[in-house]
Amino acid sequence: MAEKKLFDYQNNENVALFVVVKGAEVRLAKNGKKFIAFTFEDSSGQITAKFWDASETDITSFQAGKVVYLTGKRELYQGKPQIKLFKLRLAQEADHQTATDFLPKAPLSKSDLEQEINQAVFAITNPNWNRIVRWILQRHQTEFFDYPAAKTNHHAFEGGLAFHTVTMLHLAQAICAEYSFIKQPLLYAGIILHDMGKTIELSGAMATTYTLAGNLLGHIVLIDEEIVRACTALKIDPSSEELLLLRHVILAHHGRKEYGSPVEPEILEAEVLHHIDDLDASIMMLQGTLEHTEPGNFSERIFGMDGRHFYRPEMKVIDPKTD
Amino acid sequence: MAEKKLFDYQNNENVALFVVVKGAEVRLAKNGKKFIAFTFEDSSGQITAKFWDASETDITSFQAGKVVYLTGKRELYQGKPQIKLFKLRLAQEADHQTATDFLPKAPLSKSDLEQEINQAVFAITNPNWNRIVRWILQRHQTEFFDYPAAKTNHHAFEGGLAFHTVTMLHLAQAICAEYSFIKQPLLYAGIILHDMGKTIELSGAMATTYTLAGNLLGHIVLIDEEIVRACTALKIDPSSEELLLLRHVILAHHGRKEYGSPVEPEILEAEVLHHIDDLDASIMMLQGTLEHTEPGNFSERIFGMDGRHFYRPEMKVIDPKTD
Amino acid sequence: MAEKKLFDYQNNENVALFVVVKGAEVRLAKNGKKFIAFTFEDSSGQITAKFWDASETDITSFQAGKVVYLTGKRELYQGKPQIKLFKLRLAQEADHQTATDFLPKAPLSKSDLEQEINQAVFAITNPNWNRIVRWILQRHQTEFFDYPAAKTNHHAFEGGLAFHTVTMLHLAQAICAEYSFIKQPLLYAGIILHDMGKTIELSGAMATTYTLAGNLLGHIVLIDEEIVRACTALKIDPSSEELLLLRHVILAHHGRKEYGSPVEPEILEAEVLHHIDDLDASIMMLQGTLEHTEPGNFSERIFGMDGRHFYRPEMKVIDPKTD
Amino acid sequence: MAEKKLFDYQNNENVALFVVVKGAEVRLAKNGKKFIAFTFEDSSGQITAKFWDASETDITSFQAGKVVYLTGKRELYQGKPQIKLFKLRLAQEADHQTATDFLPKAPLSKSDLEQEINQAVFAITNPNWNRIVRWILQRHQTEFFDYPAAKTNHHAFEGGLAFHTVTMLHLAQAICAEYSFIKQPLLYAGIILHDMGKTIELSGAMATTYTLAGNLLGHIVLIDEEIVRACTALKIDPSSEELLLLRHVILAHHGRKEYGSPVEPEILEAEVLHHIDDLDASIMMLQGTLEHTEPGNFSERIFGMDGRHFYRPEMKVIDPKTD
Amino acid sequence: MAEKKLFDYQNNENVALFVVVKGAEVRLAKNGKKFIAFTFEDSSGQITAKFWDASETDITSFQAGKVVYLTGKRELYQGKPQIKLFKLRLAQEADHQTATDFLPKAPLSKSDLEQEINQAVFAITNPNWNRIVRWILQRHQTEFFDYPAAKTNHHAFEGGLAFHTVTMLHLAQAICAEYSFIKQPLLYAGIILHDMGKTIELSGAMATTYTLAGNLLGHIVLIDEEIVRACTALKIDPSSEELLLLRHVILAHHGRKEYGSPVEPEILEAEVLHHIDDLDASIMMLQGTLEHTEPGNFSERIFGMDGRHFYRPEMKVIDPKTD
Amino acid sequence: MAEKKLFDYQNNENVALFVVVKGAEVRLAKNGKKFIAFTFEDSSGQITAKFWDASETDITSFQAGKVVYLTGKRELYQGKPQIKLFKLRLAQEADHQTATDFLPKAPLSKSDLEQEINQAVFAITNPNWNRIVRWILQRHQTEFFDYPAAKTNHHAFEGGLAFHTVTMLHLAQAICAEYSFIKQPLLYAGIILHDMGKTIELSGAMATTYTLAGNLLGHIVLIDEEIVRACTALKIDPSSEELLLLRHVILAHHGRKEYGSPVEPEILEAEVLHHIDDLDASIMMLQGTLEHTEPGNFSERIFGMDGRHFYRPEMKVIDPKTD
Questions:
Q1: pTM of this structure
Q2: Which among F28, F30, F216 has CB closest to B311?
Q3: Per the CB < 8 Å rule, is A77 touching E27?
Q4: Can you tell me the distance from the alpha carbon of E147 to that of F88, in angstroms, rounded to the nearest whole number?
Q5: Which residue range is the domain that position C71 belongs to?
Q6: Has residue E323 got a pLDDT over 60?
Q7: Cα–Cα distance measured from residue D283 to residue E285, given in angstroms and rounded to the nearest whole number
Q8: How many domains in chain A?
Q9: Is residue D318 included in any domain, yes or no?
Q10: Are C91 and C18 spatial neighbours (Cβ–Cβ below 8 Å)?
Q11: What ipTM score was computed for the predicted complex, to two decimals?
């Protein structure tokens, strides 16, 4: 719709729009009264605001997940945009607002993502890898197409997990075309499963946190466990060479032990999968930061990129591809 | 018996005894002829020797696992003892020699080790932990009491895996007595299972190598897989808190990600298990080196101890405990 | 006594009790007035509170070391408990309160600690090590049984230094029982002396800071200096092998140069002492954090444990040992 | 042709073929006589051999670059194949052998490589980047299509530098198709120039060594110098934003300062170029090792891949793409 | 003049003096009003102050670079001195104040610095090194004698760059006197040019920031570019050995790749230059901190010195040199 | 004298001269006979040679420390010069040769070194520092002017320890002249004592090894012990500020804990001493390597300089200082 979004407003401009409450933390002000530290979100991004002298009713009403109508002013505070609140009210039935409409989403629709995944599964010509991928996909289907790929950092949006997977499949296809000796079915199977354990490690698409299993076991071990379970169900030997290869590709995908892989890549496809994963995560992290940076300026320093900051050029480049 | 062992001989003393061939690598000498680089072993340790101008018959006869009667002279070569070979012959039936009698063994007998393990299992009072430990022990019983705890470094002898486990249980008992808030059943269950995956990771007690599953998955993931399998068989929920705790204790036992644990200790018992494992491995590695070092000298530098060398004191200490 | 302690109160409950002022830092509020940032303490732990618009009389009265009667409300501020102050008054003679009664103390009484240390000294059968330990103990007796083992982190309570030492002696006894080749007298002498330099490095039991000698020389060099002094007094050769061993065990007890040991363990007992020290410090640091964590939750991240956080399980374990 | 190559022979098989002398190092044997340590090469790979009791004539004749006819036997020495020499003679005119025919070459012909590069230059639509790339290409054309991409490790063959560049351009095209916000002209210009400094850093295609400029300045600074020179020649401002971007992309392409980049990637295209470079180098290094590894075995440990070894699977995978 | 400077005042003393506005950041207070976070400076150092409820006129008037007359009180806030503002007014013509008079300056006058540099240039007896140094000096003369040597940390004052260079020349002279085999002309040429790129990397003497070229290329590459340009202008071969040596000495002066040198010292003079640079920077950083530390106290922790803090002794030392 | 030294001969030139046996290691050849691996030395450097088929008489005669008359030929073996032995005989009385005349020596005579040290002691105007330095110097005088400064690496020659100290004093003088705020007496006292512990850590000037005290305590703790002893003898308080400063300067002189300093520099003079020590050691290590490198070549990689190799330029530089 043509309605203005959070990031369509300029600094020092008055704002009036529906947003969803992403976070609402109650704190104690120095004057002893309570205030709510809000994070609001719509599909254009997230912004913070402070609600001073909050009553118990305010605290009860304005909770995470609610759609609210917000009036205020966008301002700059220590270099970051925030909202100075004028007024806040809950959306009512008559407003016809749905919370999930406000969440950022993957650029591809769920049905497009499903179709891409299905095509890739079709290309896994080794029967056992194919059966295992399908068995696991079926059990985690709902979460796989709904969850983000990470709590923060990159692909932290609804459908992010499947979108990250599909992008990696595209890159894998191009790489296999370049290097004919890579086993494409193994690489595809590995990519589809590599982050599937996040459907157990994370709590969901909204207010994402780590589950206890996520904290104590981690998504790498969790998906390996699923593969073993699939083997039992499908009567496939989990210690045959083809299964050891598939499991290794997934266990090793963080590339180094210090990043949480219990083994490091020791077959070609494991090394390649790790590179593709790293490449897509880096580009998405960078792009997520640069799209909120003004041309001619450096971004904030990005924790997940060794604390580097990145420059968004002023110049326009004529790109025959897109122009 | 009163027969002299390999390390009962002095340098420059003639030797004549039965030993087992631990390794026999055929190489090409600079004169173009083949020679065999032997490693001989008896229960006192290992020593090397070169067999020059080896015929094809020699190569076929003197293979790893054979018992041989060796005459020669112990000498020092670049600071290490070796045997200068005079003559070598295969043991014959009449010699009444059995290869396994020559391998170093754990200081406790197999039945003592079994009894100790059984007592510890008995002390695991949580029913699900107890059932899982027993289910897995039963499946790996033979290997568990036969395998070494590592390919080299420490406890690299027959029964080493069970002996390492039993020593850790002793230390755990003392630590639990000191700190009453440690959950002893969880610590015991974790200790018994923590290295059980080595029965799959390693190839066996003689000429130990890594299996393909050992290389590509590693013993930490391999034992976690067994626990999941035990849960299926015993109808225990592998994602209940009690199971997450047990699995975490084992997954985290290397203490740091860079040492191959996919997660780092995040519960008390995981931290304690890691310390006990490290303590026993360090002491055994040190002792194994120091017992071949002359009093008043430094040992060789030990790779597994950050390349440090260790001093064996000359002085005798009157120890009321042992004297 | 049956009086409620600081950590017996729940969040949002009104509190009224005597506590000791552990810290009282005067700061400037944004309105230009002074306030006092208090840390209060009793034997159950420490908690902070802010005292706004402090007069000069307030500042003079409510200083570190004073016992005060406090009324207020326990609240949660950014996930940590704090006190919202209603009123504060100094304890008066009639209240019969003594500051030192409010400090956390070692679980063992001073006389129990002394008895344990004496027994261990008795077991040091090497005459020279025995005489040196007794000579140094006598010079630092008062501080040794009074000081904490560290400024913060672990055993940061009255008597913590001696308690840490005694716990390590218990563990050492069990370890020597398991590995008969360890020289128990050397290990005992090393343990008793290893942190004795902290009686010079630290300023005392209350408001503990580092002394200039502590900063510029460190407790490891300070205790080595004492041993040299003991040798002079007792006419023992400080460069004899037995003295080099004792001094090495102590100099190397941090295990690695980057942790401040000028030499790394190069004899067996030095390696073992380092492990015991590390084990006890880790367990006490963890336990100190977990006892203030709610079951089913993760603790805060612990700086001294590589920034890890730890989970306190919900489940109860039937422990035959303690139940 | 159907003639057998070096790596078409099995171990212990007699060999008889023309090869080129890649290296010929004269050394002193223990008997005081000289021998030549040869490295022979043909398009299938490299192998070593020792030539005992070499006369001065032998030493003068059999020098690097010469084609020789070799008879001998392929053998295994410490796990690596080598040739036991029977006889060696120089190729004569009548043999119609040319040294350069024996060198391994890029899988694409020089004219194909040129055509690919030209197409990519055509796609650099920014006029200044385009002119600079063409100016530099023209000056280094001969070396660029002739040199290897590295002294050892990867693409260490004739034409390797251009082949590495062309492969990276293919990958870049696929990546730009996936992420439309990447400036393709900048990425292409960066890729074509990124390793061009190696034409100055290295000595050539045969017996490749580092030049003095290569050692003291390195190829990254050397190519930046060329860009500055191009700017002078073409009257382009080297400190304009478009030039700073191009130079940064190239200076940062090693990704981290410790790998020799004076600055780390701080624009999107620099980050992407670094990933593509790393990906192609890793795959080529791996493939170069795996093609000399037997199926079902692990390769040697690869220095440039953190000392990891890699497994070559036994199983065949039906790949719809290539089958 | 005898007027009191900022650091001549004690804590809690009223202040009244002219200072220059070094920084003036506008922020939003919690009450929704704007305030200015000031940094004031005079030749004795820098101090901060907050200006509450700032009007738009205030914001427009009190900008960086302005001289202001300030009345207030020096106070301690979280261990650091700050000014509590009473009143602030712009200096007027009648006050006869010039902003640049308030900036800290190098201890040597500009003409002294010039004379020292000229003498050193005179000692560069190799004709090509001499011509290049003079060509570059001439182009950057103004900035070289005006700029600081770093944005913060050390020599962050007007003329700091030339002063740092002159001090290094003094040290180099003493070192060459001690080690006669060092090539003094090469060392001198390297020192004069080593940080000259900072005249491009930094924005100037006031409110110093990094330029885009500084961020994307860095001062090490920028000065190498100038040398290449000088070679072109003076018709000197930039790839001759003497030029490679000079360029290497400068490229390597950060000593290690991780500190931004694309190559590490590989000739004697490069190693020596790095040590001299490091020594002078360390001493100046330390001295800048210690002169604001009270005797008998430790300084704050210094980020650029691995986070160490430094002690300023109480004792006076009779120094025959200065007393 | 005009006699040719070891390094006056060219490769492939016959040699005939007196040298001293620096090392004589008896090893077993592959033919089962013994040979002696010699290291010969004269004041120009060290060279190796192998003596084949050594008889027991040879082994007894040609031991370390003996002067021998050697005829043979200098050759290159794997890039390093060695001697091919023709004949070897012990020097006889009539040859008038003394072993110590063949050892490399410090460039300054012992009496010059003593005079320099005495002058520096004279400049230590603080009475207590002065008395301590003189007390310690007196006890270690003989060794101090005789020992090397290190076992290998740098200043590994007779008198090297005192020469290293004197060079550092020269540099310190120049640095104090540049930075008037450095306490010269403290720096001088620190320099004279900083490596004095090496007279206990090392075994002597010939065939230098580490003593047991050197291994287990290290020279840093050993000299601190001497200072404490000096305090006792001279009735100086070792915990006064002036003594803490002196001891800190010495304890911290390795600069970082990982290099064996139990504390890191926390006063100005400690930081400066560390830099001077590092500078002199680096230059001497480099020079020792470069003087055996041909102009226009790179040296071997130097272990003590992070494995870097160094280039010795071909060009001659006209140095007004020395020409």
A1: 0.89
A2: F216
A3: yes
A4: 68
A5: 6-102
A6: no
A7: 47
A8: 2
A9: no
A10: yes
A11: 0.87
